[in-house]
């Protein structure tokens, strides 16, 4: 954690947890071979439909956080991404979930989960 990640309580701010979840999600997609979350196939990427964060403990300056990701509830148009965030002592800091809906940014409408992404998520 960096000084800019802390809030007035001198621990990680709630807005930073959502940012860390996004960063982990982008890295996850890159590990699957996608450039980012905006380009799964052609103009199809995704948007976040909902987000939940459950705080378990504080994170402080210089803490190293680990974020684990799991995918669940695949449907025609999206899926849920679950996050488990722990510190360097394996103490749980937070759990999170984002509801992802695939979106065609050219047509400006919801789109089915691209086959290539679906295949990689199911392996």
What do you see in this structure?
It is a single chain. With 123 residues, the protein is of the alpha+beta class. It is built from two helices and five strands; from the N terminus they run H-E-E-E-E-E-H. Strands 1, 2, 3, 4 and 5 form a five-stranded antiparallel β-sheet that branches. It is elongated, with a radius of gyration of 16 Å. The model has no long low-confidence stretch (mean pLDDT 88).
How many beta strands in the DSSP annotation?
A: 5
Annotated CATH architecture: Roll
The CATH superfamily appears as Hotdog Thioesterase
CATH class: Alpha Beta
Report the structural category.
alpha+beta
Nearest-angstrom radius of gyration? 16 Å
- Count of domain modules: 1
Average pLDDT rating: 88
Give the overall shape, derived from the CA principal axes: elongated
First and last CA, distance: 32 Å
Describe the secondary-structure layout.
Layout: H1 14-31, E1 44-55, E2 66-72, E3 78-86, E4 92-104, E5 109-110, H2 115-121
Question: Which labels suit this protein?
Answer:
123 residues; Thiol Ester Dehydrase, Chain A; 5-stranded antiparallel β-sheet; 5 strands; 20% helix; alpha+beta; 2 helices; 35% strand
Give the gist of this structure.
This protein is α+β, with helices and mostly antiparallel strands and 123 residues long. The chain is built from two helices and five strands; from the N terminus they run H-E-E-E-E-E-H.
């Amino acid at each position: 954690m960096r000084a800019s990640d802390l809030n007035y309580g001198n621990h990680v701010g709630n807005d930073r947890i959502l940012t860390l979840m996004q960063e982990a999600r982008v890295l996850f997609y890159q590990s699957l071979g996608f450039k980012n979350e905006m380009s799964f196939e052609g103009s199809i990427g995704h948007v976040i439909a909902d987000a939940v964060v459950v705080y378990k403990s504080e994170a402080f300056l210089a803490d190293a956080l680990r974020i684990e990701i799991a995918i669940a509830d695949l449907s025609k148009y999206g899926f849920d991404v679950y996050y488990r965030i722990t510190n360097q002592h394996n103490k749980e800091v937070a759990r999170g979930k984002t509801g992802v809906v695939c979106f065609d940014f050219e047509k400006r409408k919801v789109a089915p989960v691209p086959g290539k992404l679906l295949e990689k998520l199911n392996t």
